[in-house]
Amino acid sequence: xLLVQKYGGSSVADVGKIRQVAARVARSVxxxxxxxxxxxxxxxxxxxxxxxxxxxAQTPGRREIDMLISVGERVSMALLAMALHEAGVPARSFTGxxxxxxxxxxxxxxxxxxxxxxxxxxxxxxxxVPIVAGFQGVSRSREVTTLGRGGSDTTAVVLAAALGADExxxxxxxxxxxxxxxxxxxxxxxxxELSLDExxxxxxxxxxxxxxxxxxxxxxxxxxxxxxxxANAGGGTLIRPTLPEPRVVGVVADVQLALVSAEAWATLEAxxxxxxxxxxxxxxxxxxxxxPPGVPIATVAVxxxxxxxDPTRLVEVLALAAACLGESPExxxxxxxxxxxxVKTSDAPALERHLHFSMLGRAGISAAP
Length: 369
Ligand code: ASP
Ligand code: MG
Known about the structure:
- Residues about 365-369 have low confidence and may be disordered.
- The longest helix is centred in the first third of the chain and has 25 residues, at about 60-85.
- The protein has 10 helices and 18 strands.
- The chain folds into 2 domains: about 1-175, 3-Layer(aba) Sandwich (Carbamate kinase), CATH 3.40.1160; about 250-360, 2-Layer Sandwich (VC0802-like).
- The chain has helices at about 15-30, 45-55, 60-85, 120-125, 150-165, 195-205, 210-220, 260-265, 310-325, 350-360, and strands spanning about 1-5, 35-40, 90-95, 100-105, 110-115, 130-135, 135-140, 145, 165-170, 195, 225-230, 235-240, 250-260, 275, 280-285, 295-305, 330-335, 340-345.
- It is an alpha/beta fold.
- The protein starts with a strand and ends in an 8-residue tail after the last helix.
- The strands form 3 sheets. Strands 3-6-2-1-9-11-12-10 form an 8-stranded mixed β-sheet, with helices on both faces.
- Aspartic acid binds next to loops.
- Aspartic acid binds near residues 9, 40 and 134.
């Protein structure tokens, strides 16, 4: 099989962990697979680099931000290649640009427009494991760009599509996608499988384990994803282009948002806008890198196949929310696979727990054994 494996920041946080990743990759190769590896920056590196930028300038330029934060993934790629050499596995590291990841010019939140993985194919043909620096590409004007926070997942998915990989495995310290954040929601369960539509609705509404751009690309290309723990073989969550019966699979909260007035939202970049109405816009602050606009706000979303397209379900979610908050939420929207409620940031944790308990708490649908 041809596999693309992506290892997140916590999986390469120190030299010992990098050696563990090298051993895991070596096992996949020994089992007869061809493997392309994508790495994130070590641990908290990207945040540390961004903090340095903010120490130097109040509003650092987005081109220079990209020059700075693209470095994190390059450190990991070189160290992992060295660790594989030590383990006796031929490997070669590549930057995003060397991997043929061509993007638009939107610094710090660029979109992949073309993938030309010739060098990776040659490396595979030479019996090597190509190690790709995630989260970055090059624009047509030859500028270094980055793909938005969590963008290493996007690197992995676009390469899986371009190389025709059998599976794209996203490895992190969490063993898959859960029905809610298990740190804050009692009764949350790991989901053994999800449709790509459901995974996209989860990513879009703030599930941190999945990057929205990556899942959107997988959705478009019909790529099978597996979210796994680096420490385990097997298990995890299998995400495929299936169409399950209508159901609720999870509740996700997002607190990295701002509510912006109707006049102000026209000036913001479109990819940051989650939803807009006469009441203004809900804006995703993750890739803004400047003073946050508007007032902080949160969303809590109920996600599952067709759950936003079913009026009975919608009424049920709104009634449960009103019971928890003491008043009906003023702002909400529904998409095919989600009902999304806009609430005060301080209300989000309780509402997330209440909705999960009411809709999933006892059912634990599709929970892995
Ligand atoms: N290092 C980048 C980030 O922290 C990209 C990634 O980890 O996927 O957002
Ligand atoms: Mg993005």
